[in-house]
Amino acid sequence: MADRKETITETIATRVLPPTKENIEAAGAVIRRGGLVAFPTETVFGLGADALNAAAVKKVYEAKGRPSDNPMIVHIAAAPELAALTDQHDGMLEQITRAFWPGPLTVVVRKRSVVPATTTGGLDTVAVRNPESTIARELIRASGTPIAAPSANISGRPSPTKTEHVIHDLQGKIDVILSGPDCRVGIESTVLDMSEGHPVILRPGIITPEEIGAVCGQTAELDPTLRQRPTEEERRDPAQFHPKAPGMKYKHYAPQAEMVIFEGSPSAVRRRIEEAKAAQEQAGKKVGVILFGEHDFARAAHDLFADLRRQDEEGVDLILAGALSDQNSVGFAVMNRMLKSAGYHVIKV
Ligand code: AMP
Ligand code: MG
Asked: Which residues fall within 8 angstroms of residue 187, CB to CB, at 6 or more apart?
């Protein structure tokens, strides 16, 4: 193919490639040259660039429309590669990575200078993950460099869990999309801060505080901001809401449709959703419903983002969703996303 300028401000030819050995090699070469490759992982699809190349990482922020202070997760092909990114090597970090890698757990550790500030949003820590997905690990190996990869969606949209979601959001903006199976987990990795000597969960995921606690012998605290919800007044006027974690301010994972969550006992929620649906349809609205089984936490994680995107494709005006119990740790992780999708619009029943 003739040389062309690597620019993402205009439409570029995106190659959608099945993950054959040759295609993974070719995609690795694209990363090495400073290009952008979307790829499947077990959590959600990632949009990858050479994590050690600030110019390449900058293109990821541009392609996604991601605020440049939102740090990226650096993906490695095998646990020993962590040593190239951090000088930290304490016993607890060793226990955690041995227990959960490869897999859907990210650790935040103090960064070495080789990791550019662009990758970490200016922080002196770096988030690192060794994914379980074979395609992801083969791509990292083929690239010969760690890969910085946020989710492969336009910033603010639901994360992509199917190849078609990535094509929808990023075709014409990146060099290669490696196609792959639907993501096994469906929500992003658990993010565990290990940089301060004790484990703190910054983002809940499928790997729970209980599982982490069982491995490292001490309770993994939840970052207190994870339990914050804006009041009704703050929700209507976001300028009044000042959470510590910047991401909490913004609508994330958001469908185009308006979305409301009903929270309460499962039978009352079901009833209220049926009533609200009938009333809104009467008023001429196209209404979609997201209601998972009471104990179907893993399924809810698997389906949530795909369900949100499907509702948009169907041109729904209003999504009525049933809350999951946040007493269950996976339920809590799914609720963390669902609340953001709905801009914290919750009706207690
Ligand atoms: P995404 O890749 O879009 O799933 O987002 C990555 C997540 O990891 C974001 O929520 C970041 O806030 C978090 N993250 C990445 N690096 C760090 C870090 N050094 N310290 C704290 N959180 C981080
Ligand atoms: Mg994301």
From this structure: 43, 44, 159, 205, 206, 301, 304, 305, 333, 334, 337
